[in-house]
Amino acid sequence: MKRLLILGGTKEASQLAIKAATISNLEVRLSVAGRTTQARYQVGVTRVGGFGGVPGLIKYLQDDAIDILIDATHPFAGKISLHAAVAAQELDLPRLMLIRPEWLLQAGDNWLEVDNITSVAEMLKENAKRVFLAVGRQKLTNFVHIDKIWFLMRLIEPPKKDDLIPQGLIILDRGPFRLIKEKELLIEHQIDTIVSKNSGGDATIAKITAARELGIKVVMVKRPQLPPGEWVNNVEDALIWLLSFIKSTSY
Question: Residue 154: what are its φ and ψ, rounded to 5°?
Fold first, then answer.
């Protein structure tokens, strides 16, 4: 019996966990950060919460006798991906990264690509008045000091009591989002600029398509650099890799 740990928090991680759980002689564990209380888990053994850095992850991998590690975290969860790479190397564990493809610039898009979220705020001051801020709750503090811009902020769940929130409106919703509804949202709130992380996937791409069709600017935050290692960009290829490894070590 082999034991697989999937570092999750994405739709792809949950899909992989469900399919991998059907593989004979494989025990699957899914770990999620638990940043939202409404997170949905669909696998038998799920762990919620952080590990406590590289030492904590190494201890967990050893204590739970993990044989295989698949990093299927969010493209912007760079810290845990780095920790996974270091821990896997330390323990000589096979590691695969499941990285969803990023969104690509298309004809008609008006993107301004930036390296990180901290560089966005100053840029907006001179170029925007009504902004759809689609960067997640934890990044909202970067925009609190801006007093001449109205922000539309969409979150999965309400901010915590002590969170610092920019001026504007918070709406609560979870993707996938429909194109027609995204266009209606942008028009209703007279949005002139969208700030988005290049998360990829189809759950939230409708706002990017809507911006293209409505001629709205998009400030697109590039993904952080991920550690080197084997990677695939879809669940099917991750399963092929997993089955190949199990077969190669079963003799």
Answer: -105, 125
Look at the domain 111-221 and name its fold. Rossmann fold (3.40.50)
Q: Is 152 exposed, middle or buried (0-12, 13-18, 19+ CB in 10 A)?
A: buried
CATH architecture of residue range(s) 2-101+225-248: 3-Layer(aba) Sandwich (3.40)
Q: Cα(123)–Cα(111) distance, rounded to whole angstroms?
A: 13
Tokens encoding 64: 């739970």
pLDDT tens digits, residue range 113-152? 999 998 898 889 888 999 999 998 889 999 999 989 999 9
Q: How many CB atoms lie under 10 A from the CB of residue 214? A: 14
* Full strand arrangement of the beta sheet holding 217-221: 111-114, 217-221, 193-197, 130-134, 150-155, 168-172
Residue type at position 225: Q
As a whole number of Å, the CA-based R_g of the chain is: 20
pTM: 0.88
Where are the domains positioned within the chain?
2-101+225-248, 111-221
